[in-house]
Amino acid sequence: MKECKLQPKFKDSSHFKNFWEKGNGKQLIELSGAEVSLKDFDQFSEFYYHIDTVGDEVVKDIYFTKNFHEASREIEQYIRKGVSVDENVPESVKQLFQQTQKVPDWLDHDLLKSGAELCMRSNLDSLISLRDYCLIGGYDYAYLNKPLMATEALKKGAVKRLSETLDFWVNVTRYHALEVHHKGYEFAIKTRLIHSYAKLSIRKSYKEWDTENWGEPINSWDMMATYIGFSLVFMHSLKKLGNVVSDEEEKGLFHLWKYVGYLLGIPEKILPDNKKQATEYFYLWTAVQPSSDNDSVLLAHYLLNESLENPILKYQFQRRNLRYLHICCTWYLLGDEVCKRLKIPDVPFKKGFPVTKKILNKVYNNLVSREARIKRGNKDQMKVLEDYLSITQNSNFH
């Protein structure tokens, strides 16, 4: 690990202060009861230069020694059948699967179930939250986006990238998905190795990488922030849209993403257990992130225009209407300052749809049983995923 000399250099910037004193950061503090400060900065900042060396070694031993599809088939066999200590496989593979096949002592399957149920119960609000708050909101952090630009991820198109994100999220948030050898577990391992593959490719080919400012490519601290997006920020968005989250569901959501983070090789020390920890950890990380740059704006507009290029909806007027609804939700969830930085188009009556949704959610939550909402949400989310996969014609992360 590189000796850490990182400083919280954006702590006095207007975007940092406005977020934590006026914007969504202030709301996160109120929601979580967090006590934010920079006193623990040095304990976390070292992870800006920390990477998943285990995953990296597997990629070097398997993916870099044979063609990609052959390597992928080999890894899939390990995922589905497991790896024993005395098996004739590379030591890196043994190390990876000894870690991920070992269920940690702290894992609570009842909490995993509660977390999955919240994700399913929230139905399309979950997908709105992921897209219009978590994903596009992440683009406001300029350094976080650099691996996407370095790997030219946009070349595959916004539809494909959104399909992959949705495929991952849906498959790790179903019942029993994260049990060893099950589908969510498989997605976690594959995603971990894709991260390592991308990281090694960046290191090999992208000579302009600025390690001092951007950290290591796909470093552990950025990964922590990303998965706080799936837990804390996601829950905040659901509440903004009028969803009620029980204490058990809240605990379950953080537990589920802590375990996903564990499978992905993020150090346990920086995986939060609850909303208070998550907010405090997130505060420290944002102090090293500048606000939107030109790449951020480009990424945001690729995502907004995904609705126009996606052939799931047959007619152009339907696609334009869907784009308009996503824009409305983005303004409502992210707030004016972030949307202006990302140059999100200003549209008329932009509060109409999200406010109406919020009111209807409160009525719906009171009228329909929790079990029925979970069942319906699972069905609707699987249908959206099926539609996306039928368009991209590839459910794998190749």
TrEMBL record:
PANTHER family: ER-BOUND OXYGENASE MPAB_MPAB'_RUBBER OXYGENASE CATALYTIC DOMAIN-CONTAINING PROTEIN, SECRETED PROTEIN-RELATED
Pfam families xref list: MPAB_Lcp_cat (PF09995)
Domain spans labelled ER-bound oxygenase mpaB/mpaB'/Rubber oxygenase catalytic: 155-345
UniProt protein name: ER-bound oxygenase mpaB/mpaB'/Rubber oxygenase catalytic domain-containing protein
Membrane-spanning intervals of the chain: none
Species: Chryseobacterium taihuense
Signal peptide start-end: none
